[in-house]
Write a structure and sequence with these properties.
This protein is mainly beta. The protein has helices spanning 65-70, 162-167, 185-195, 209-214; strands at residues 8-18, 21-27, 41-44, 47-55, 58-63, 81-86, 105-115, 118-124, 138-141, 144-152, 155-160, 178-183. The protein has three domains: 8-86, Elongation Factor Tu (Ef-tu), domain 3 (Beta Barrel), CATH 2.40.30.20; 105-183, Elongation Factor Tu (Ef-tu), domain 3; 186-219, no CATH class.
Amino acid sequence: MFTGIIQAIGTVANLEQRGGDVRLCINAGKLDLEGANPGDSIAVNGVCLTAVELAGDGFAADVSHETLSLTTLGGLRAATPVNLEKALTLSTPLGGHLVSGHVDGLGRVLERRDDARSVRLRIEAPEELARYIAPKGSICVDGTSLTVNEVAGRVFGLNIVPHTLQETIIDGYRAGTAVNLEVDLIARYLERLLLGEKAGCANAAGISRAFLAEHGFLK
């Protein structure tokens, strides 16, 4: 588990092709690796990876073909900056929200504009994730815990303050940038709970307006 509070911006040092998979070598920047061990989890752009090697100021992790195909990690190149966060412990302040490091889908930046010292972003999410995104709710974008400002269909808006711009890769976002999205896991569990006994059905379609009306949530 993670908090979505980015601890460092690292850079891709090398990518080694290994039979369809990739060994990703990361220069960890200011990330504190003291006490870290092989087998520890580190989130890279919001993707939970297992460190298999730790050396000096960096680490290496193996990235499966599935992860490469379902996240932005498949598009990384040498020298690309990445968001880094070590897994939380019981003593870690939960400054963001609970993040699993399991990417739900890819979003796309539609617009970036300045707003005083902050930056406003509009991001388009996959249609199947739209129902989990709510105004003033939490969403994880490339591993960064952010608050949703507004939602219109599957497009949501964010306000990025100067500190976040400085401490994450978000300052490099432009229209067209692909981003990893992880929705609030509490919303996912709530959906399953609302399904009740239907959650065990293989053809359970999820929450819809018809479902909510049938069970008295809508009039």
